[in-house]
C-alpha cells in the first residue's frame, strides 16, 4: 500500500505598494476573513495554507511583506528561497501599477532569480470598486506584463472574495509549468554529451556529494520537502509558532495568527 501523499512546501512572496491589499489578500485566502481597517505591515509575516491542485497536495508558505519603502531592509532578506512571487497593484491606483517595475527588480536582485525562469504573476486587487474609480485598464496591465515577460495576470477582490484562491492556484500552475520546462531541459541536457565541455567530472562530483544541478532540476520528493535546493534557512522550521519578522502590524482586532489547515 502506498503511504499517504505528503504535501510539497512552496514559499510564496507577495509584493506591492503599501495599501494595495496584500495583507487583505493573504487573510482572505488563509482564513476567509476581511478587515476594512488594516494598519501597514511592518517587516514581514507569513502564514501557511494547504491546497490541492491537479490531485497534488501543497503547503503554501505565504510571506506578506511591508509595502512602504522605509521597510525595505526588513523585507528583502526574506526573498531568497522563494518558489513564486505575486506582484500586486490596486485597480484604483495607477501609481501602484507603475510601482511594480521596482518590486519586480527588487525581487530579482534579492531573491537572485532569473526573471524568465521564475513564476511571477501580476495581481490587480480591489476589483470590487465602482467603474469610475478604476484607474488601471486591463490593456494597461497586459502591456506592462508583455514588457516584463510575465504571462499570468488576474484581478481579485479580497473584500468580496473574488478570484483570491484562483490567484494562488494560478501562481502554483505557473510554478508547475516552469518546473516541467526545467525538468525537460535537464533531461535533454542529460542525454547530450558535449565533448567540448569538461562535464564528466562535474557530474560525478554532483552525484557523489549529493549536490543538485539547480533548483529547477529537482525531482521533488514528497518525503523530502525540506531538503530541496531552495534556501531552507528562509523557510519556517515549524508551522505552529508565531511567524512575525520585523515588528507586527498593530491591529484594532485580534493579532494575526498562523493557520495550519
Ligand atoms: N475595496 C477594496 N478595498 C480593499 C481590498 N483589499 C484591501 N482593501 C483596502 O485596502 C486597505 C489596505 O489593505 P492592506 O491589506 O493593509 O494593504 P497592504 O498592501 O498589505 O499594505 P502594507 O501593509 O502597507 O504593505 C485595507 O484597509 C482595505 O480597506 C479589496 O479587495 N477591495
From TrEMBL:
- Which cofactors, by name? Mg(2+)
Q: What is its EC number?
A: 3.6.5.2
Task: Report the locations given in the UniProt record.
Answer: Cell membrane; Cytoplasmic vesicle, Phagosome membrane
- Keywords linked to the UniProt accession: Cell membrane, Cytoplasmic vesicle, GTP-binding, Hydrolase, Lipoprotein, Membrane, Nucleotide-binding, Phosphoprotein, Prenylation, Protein transport, Transport
Enumerate composition-biased segments (Polar residues).
236-261
Any Pfam family the entry gives: Ras
Keyword Hydrolase present in the record's keywords: the answer is yes
Disordered, as annotated region: 211-261
Matches recorded under Gene3D superfamilies: P-loop containing nucleotide triphosphate hydrolases
Its recorded reaction(s) are: GTP + H2O = GDP + phosphate + H(+)
What membrane topology is given?
A: Lipid-anchor
Q: Specify where it is mainly localized.
A: membrane
GO CC terms: cytosol; late endosome; lysosome; phagocytic vesicle membrane; plasma membrane
Q: Which GO terms describe its biological process?
A: protein transport; retrograde transport, endosome to Golgi
GO molecular function terms listed in the Swiss-Prot or TrEMBL record? G protein activity; GTP binding
Residues crossing the lipid bilayer are: none
Which family is it part of?
Belongs to the small GTPase superfamily. Rab family.
Identify the PANTHER family for this entry.
Answer: RAB FAMILY, RE17845P
- State what protein this is by name: small monomeric GTPase
Amino acid at each position: 500500500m502506498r503511504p499517504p501523499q505528503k504535501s510539497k512546501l512552496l514559499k510564496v512572496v507577495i509584493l506591492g505598494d503599501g495599501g494595495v491589499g496584500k495583507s487583505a489578500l493573504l487573510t482572505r485566502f488563509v482564513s476567509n476573513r476581511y478587515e476594512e481597517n488594516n494598519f501597514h505591515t511592518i517587516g514581514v509575516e507569513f502564514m501557511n495554507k494547504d491546497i490541492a491542485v491537479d490531485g497534488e497536495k501543497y503547503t503554501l508558505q505565504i510571506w506578506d511583506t511591508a509595502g512602504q519603502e522605509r521597510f525595505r531592509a526588513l523585507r528583502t532578506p526574506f526573498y531568497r528561497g522563494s518558489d513564486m512571487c505575486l506582484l500586486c497593484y490596486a485597480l484604483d491606483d495607477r501609481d501602484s501599477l507603475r510601482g511594480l517595475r521596482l518590486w519586480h527588480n527588487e525581487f530579482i536582485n534579492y531573491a537572485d532569480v532569473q526573471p524568465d525562469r521564475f513564476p511571477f504573476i501580476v495581481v490587480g486587487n480591489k476589483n470590487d470598486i465602482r467603474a469610475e474609480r478604476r484607474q488601471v485598464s486591463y490593456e494597461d496591465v497586459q502591456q506592462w506584463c508583455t514588457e516584463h515577460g510575465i504571462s499570468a495576470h488576474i484581478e481579485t477582490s479580497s473584500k468580496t472574495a473574488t478570484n483570491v484562491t484562483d490567484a494562488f492556484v494560478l501562481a502554483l500552475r505557473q510554478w508547475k509549468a516552469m518546473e516541467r520546462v526545467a525538468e525537460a531541459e535537464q533531461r535533454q541536457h542529460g542525454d547530450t554529451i558535449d565533448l567540448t565541455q569538461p562535464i564528466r567530472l562535474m557530474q560525478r562530483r554532483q552525484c557523489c556529494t549529493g549536490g543538485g544541478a539547480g533548483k529547477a532540476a529537482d525531482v521533488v520528493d514528497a518525503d523530502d520537502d525540506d531538503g530541496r535546493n531552495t534556501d531552507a534557512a528562509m523557510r519556517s522550521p515549524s508551522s505552529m509558532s508565531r511567524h512575525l519578522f520585523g515588528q507586527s502590524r498593530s491591529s484594532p482586532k485580534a493579532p494575526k495568527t498562523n493557520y495550519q489547515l
